[in-house]
Amino acid sequence: MNDKKKKPQKLKARLPRGFVDRSAADIRAVDEMTAKIREVYERYGFDPVETPLFEYTDALGKFLPDSDRPNEGVFSLQDDDEQWMSARYDLTAPLARHVAENFNDIQLPYRTYRAGYVFRNEKPGPGRFRQFMQFDADTVGAAGVQADAEMCMMMADTMEALGIARGDYVIRVNNRKVLDGVLEAIGLGGDDNANARLTVLRAIDKLDKFGPEGVKLLLGPGRKDESGDFTKGAGLNEDQIAKVIFFIGINDYAASAADLAALVAGTSKGAEGVEELNLIGSLVTSAGYGPGRIKIDPSVVRGLEYYTGPVFEAELQFAVTNEKGEKVVFGSVGGGGRYDGLVSRFMGQPVPATGFSIGVSRLMTALKNLGKLGMDEVIAPVVVCVMDRDTESLGKYQQFTQALRHAGIRAEMYQGNKKNFGDQLKYADRRGSPLAIIQGGDERAQGLVQIKDLIEGKRLSGEIEDNTTWREARVAQVSVPEAELVAKVREMLAEQAEDRARANKDV
Length: 507
What we know:
By secondary structure, the protein is α+β, with helices and mostly antiparallel strands. It contains 17 helices and 18 strands. The chain has helices at residues 24-43, 92-101, 146-161, 176-185, 194-204, 207-219, 238-248, 253-264, 270-286, 344-347, 360-370, 391-406, 421-431, 441-446, 454-463, 467-472, 485-506; strands at 47-48, 54-56, 76-78, 84-87, 110-119, 131-140, 169-175, 222-224, 230-232, 294-296, 310-321, 327-338, 353-359, 382-384, 411-413, 435-438, 448-453, 477-481.
């Protein structure tokens, strides 16, 4: 019998599917972007609020499936009181819960914004993640469409604050009531046709992907894709299909408004929706946001049964190269609309609300393509080398480090185990550090400190071949009194910045 203990297996490091680690560059890029978005929201008078990552699953409403373990679309767990909780699917449902729970304490209209991660328990794929960041703004308690118009204008201002030029974006606006009016006009009104309406909405939502001819097939008998898979259609007749295609094909709203009004005349919601669209168009035009920035576009379909009135989408117009090397229009980076029914679920009374959400990760990709993000220099820290490890010496090194930090200069005292001076310089080089601070026993006795210009030193070592040229070049290492350390470091960093600016200008 072998009593020898089994060697414990080494744990395998692995990232869960659909999740990613974020690099320092990505984190800084997101921080830069969200700061600009936040500044616009604050300028419009919105205040921040934060809700937790988890909510009771029933608060998420439409994402609660009929199953023993509610994990379809959401990540869920059961608390010790046997209640199901889920990671938030978006930032809107948690806001609705927050408003309902604190309704007597908040000031209406309640104007708020928040950024945070949301989670989708869905199959991951290229560019499709299970965790991603959204940045939302909402107005709760404002029934008039002037609140929706303001959202559209704030979206436009946000795009421009991020450096996206006019002509490179458009805010497209539609109204769910108009769409409902069209559906009622073709005979799909009433509760009995709810499933048919949903099929039609899903078909319309494929306009960008399949074009008008593909949507026609989905509205009619169905569509077979290139792989042979068949999607059953809504089963509409030719006259019904023609009216839907007319509606989603409107490019010039002003020229088609009369025909659209005639199409939905006599329907319970259609005429009201057209009137609201006209009012939004008038409000944004009066404020200087013409159709080049905010455009009435009946092809916009968002949220299917989620929205109750105006809907809007921020769309980027420029082309990018996709993973297949093809030039494609970037498309939507966010959107929203009026959702008057969401807070009301908790209240038992009407509570109007409107808002929009920006997909932070997708927008960050767009800004990188435009060269509008991550362009600010991040200088690696100055490294203070540890030449001696007695208490007095370590105290000196820490003193130098703190003096640099208090002067606003990134700095770190070497904390590794390597005692060899050359290894410490290699560490500083790998960090991309601009300068190394050196003080041995001899320098300490004289009250001096050495500053090594690692950037200039690297350049000189590659370009200079003789001692005469070396002596004539900018000195790569200088000795200064301890009291002048901060001033000299600041001077040398400024010289490096000038070198980089000249190099970038010459490129």
